[in-house]
């Protein structure tokens, strides 16, 4: 998370600076396999109802990435074919269950109100702010110019592969934060050139750390499929902790949020460097964990399940560990 125009800003920016030395940055080195952080509720709001996104493509996005990301967003709230399971909306249901968790433990079998994510506005802008962006200066400027501070839109900035996003690649592959008036935003980077070995995993070998199986991307594009994972994680974190007063573990200045707490886990049996058990397409050999609409498939990250206080994956009920 990055905070601006507030007291918290100072300590957080300091923390961001320290993050370039990974060993002293808690968030960047957070390990769900050894760290027993529990996510708890801090009495503030979460996002509910309709979440209107303002999709801002920065630079030249590849067509495949645009299609895959749009299909992901458009599939979240649809039921899909009952016979083609598990569907992406099952995964989204766990995010929706946080609404019940605000009032106590979610009860299994009780349906939560829907949280609808809508792409309300879409813009593509060129490299007007250069090819190296910072969350401190460029992102606020860009959002101000493109979004005009519309309070009803949540800006989602997706950068092209030739753009460096300051703060991404080093331990995180997407970010979200707030500006003045508690307005939120999300930024996603393209790992293809910048950091395939950090943000392309599990579709690309990692630069450092334990090596495990590498997945075949379900949409045939390492960057697009990795960006879905990053976007899925950022959405979970933004919905459940939009103002850093919602659901998180650890300390306020460096919160461990609901997707971050389960980082590196995609299926049952996950261990450091091994994403766990997921499905394999019999024809193509592609690995995936959920179906989308139009025959699309996605790999989805684990989410902290407030009902069980453990990391939940959409494939866990299909495999024994
Ligand atoms: C991923 O797909 C490959 C085939 O391309 C398969 O051998 C492997 O077992 C799959 N991995 C998982 C975790 O299902």
UniProtKB/TrEMBL annotation:
Residues 1-27 form the signal peptide. GO terms for cellular component: apoplast. It holds the Pfam family Phi_1. It is found in: Secreted, Extracellular space, Apoplast. It comes from the Eukaryota. Keywords: Apoplast, Secreted, Signal. Belongs to the EXORDIUM family. This is Phosphate-induced protein 1. It comes from Gossypium raimondii. The lineage of its organism: Eukaryota, Viridiplantae, Streptophyta, Embryophyta, Tracheophyta.
